[in-house]
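Sync notes, pocket subgroup
Present: LS, DG
LS reminded everyone that the earlier model was apo-only. Rerun requested with FE2/S2 (inorganic) cluster included. Inputs:
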Amino acid sequence: MYTEKVMDHFTNPRNVGEIENASGVGTVGNAKCGDIMRIYLDIDADGIINDVKFKTFGCGAAVATSSMATELVKGKNVQEALQITNKAVMEALDGLPPVKVHCSLLAEEAIHAALWDYAEKNNIIINGLTKPKSDIHDGEEEVEY
Ligand code: FES
């Protein structure tokens, strides 16, 4: 059911933890399953993401996608990080079972929420970033599995 990469990131997740005095923190939840994700970003004066950590109260797919997402955004600038979609994360994991696709949205939304927090704290506008939903179930299309 899960690819080797998903199993690897689930059993050995990268970047778990929190960052004190983070540049941006984003928390999102999914009402459908009750899972919660929090992402911490450490962003330097040049807008480069030097460090990223996550904590989740979520399923295995949420852990694996968050682990991969944090690996993908680390070292990137803010604009590049914004381009990392849940699709890109899933591709990097060699795919997820269809019923688990919604789990990958938690990581993407949490990163966007953390970037939004960073932008608000620094009074800047990040092109292409809209105010994140606090609950990814909002506006989610109804999908029959
Ligand atoms: Fe909720 Fe996966 S089942 S995030």
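DG: The beta strands are 24-30, 35-43, 49-57.
LS: The chain has one domain: 4-122.
Action: DG to write up.
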